[in-house]
Design goal:
The protein is α+β, with helices and mostly antiparallel strands and about 100 residues long. The protein contains 2 helices and 5 strands.
Length: about 100
């Protein structure tokens, strides 16, 4: 009867081996999705901090324009001659090369 108890205990896989696939999935998820997204966010925030008056930018809506004024939270962007719009900082998608 004691031999039966040892056989039942040996049939159960190790707890570490049960969680290994889950841990592996989480590591792959972090390396392929979360880490690149965090890096992209940091570079975008750095780009927003460096923007100044006169820079050419592309807005998230697809418009291209020139920054005419900088506030704490907003940029004034001239998208056409005499047409100035005020946009939030995060509405700027990228900076055009000079």
């Amino acid at each position: 009867m004691i031999d039966f108890a040892y056989a039942a205990d040996a049939a159960q896989p190790n707890m570490l081996m049960q969680f290994a696939p889950l841990v592996l999935i989480l590591v792959v998820f972090y390396l392929l999705i979360m880490r690149p997204q965090q890096k992209k966010f940091k570079t975008h925030q750095a780009m927003l901090k460096e923007l100044k008056r006169g820079d050419r930018v592309i807005l998230a809506s697809g418009f291209a324009g020139t920054i005419t004024a900088v506030n704490e939270q907003f940029f004034s962007v001239e998208i056409a001659k005499g047409v100035v719009v005020e946009v939030e900082r995060n509405a700027i998608a990228s900076k055009q090369a000079a």
